[in-house]
Amino acid sequence: MSDRHRVVILGGGFGGLYAAQALKHAPLDITLIDRRNYHLFQPLLYQVATGSLSPGEIAAPIRGVLSTQKNTTVLLGEAVDIDPTAKQVSLKDGATVPYDSLIVATGSLVSYFGHEEWKSWAPGLKTVEDATMIRHKILLAFEAAERCTDTTERCTWLTFVIVGAGPTGVELAGALGEIANHTLKHDFRSINPKDARIIIVDGGKRALGAYPEDLSKSAEKQLHNLGTRIRTGVTVTNVDEDGVTLKTPDGEEHIATHTVIWAAGVAVTEFARTLAKKTSAETDRAGHIKVASDLTVPNFPDIYIVGDLALINDKAGKPLPGVAQVAMQTGSYTARAITRKVQGKPPLAPFSYFNKGDLAVIGRAAAVANVFGIHLHGFPAWLVWLFIHLMYIVEFQSRILVLIEWGFLYLTFNRGARLITGVAANKSIGKPEPLENLGE
């Protein structure tokens, strides 16, 4: 039996995968565990939800990605418990996995702020299943409107509400605007897809609130050009089969719609809450674990937290956002820290995040970007967005396929993955059903 240092990585997202790859040549035995057998490129998940890409084009089998790493074993499983004293992780199937160093990169879930019942009518966007469900709801709405003879009900079907004006909400709204204005404009006979109402609602003062104000205003203008209406300073008080209820400065307001998409709020996984409890770690209200300067759990120098789960402040004292580049940098840092520890070298300097910028795409040749402090709008920002996203897709073959798809989309606005799937795909169109009845 090998007596080499055992590193267990929980999660095959950006944080976990980058940590594993950075340990490729280290004299360690690595075990990466994920409940999915693939790495998902989440920043492009909204393009699956809007029919631009297929799931296989933004996902790569983890075993394939790490197949050349002879020091790495990949296991399909889900961590549910931990014994930090005995240094072992328990999986859902009852198996236990011992470790010398543990990297926790379990990511985040959609938060409905204590109203889990809203999930039945407003899917979030974290998984492939979420994306295909949203695609189902969007396309089914147009189909239902085509067959609807009642003017009011048709308007309800053609109303789309996105909760959250962050990057995900903005990108979803932009893609929806292109679908309504361009992709579907010749496909129907009874309706004009351009009549679709796309509404973003958010409690903040502006869209992309974390971005510089000029980029925020530019994004709002570009969304407006696609027919999207942005409602800021409002909060959601209810979501059901009949629509969304908002609390506004002028009182309560109801928007009748059958298509609500949730792009606001994140929560940690159940394992993360268990870990925090077992280690007595300090957390914020959402459950993110406050880490030491070397990304370890205080009093547990063998447990590292990376990516969305870690509560890390920047130089200004503000928490780092749960974005891909944070996960990548924390994953790589942790790998270097463990390698130095095993080799008996002095520890690394405290983790310092290098912000390469922020990007959000609204549509064809429409985007905003803050790259190393340089603010870009429109086509230049879109080119930067395209290059960076292609560069970070894991598999080379997927990069080529995505580039081809984007080329066709740019020239024709055609979205080739406009499929209504699931067990409800062949049902007669009628009153909307809760998501759990639609199937995957």
Topology:
Blueprint: E1 5-10, H1 14-22, E2 28-34, E3 38-40, H2 45-49, E4 59-61, H3 62-65, E5 72-76, E6 79-83, E7 88-91, E8 96-98, E9 101-104, E10 108-110, H4 128-147, H5 151-157, E11 159-163, H6 167-183, E12 197-202, H7 213-225, E13 228-232, E14 235-240, E15 243-248, E16 251-256, E17 259-262, E18 266-268, H8 270-279, E19 289-290, E20 296-297, E21 300-305, E22 310-311, H9 324-342, E23 357-363, E24 366-371, E25 374-377, H10 378-392, H11 396-412
Parallel strand pairs: 1-2, 1-9, 2-5, 9-21, 11-12, 11-17, 12-13, 19-22
Antiparallel strand pairs: 3-4, 6-7, 7-8, 10-18, 14-15, 15-16, 20-21, 23-24, 24-25
Helix pairs in contact: 1-9, 4-5
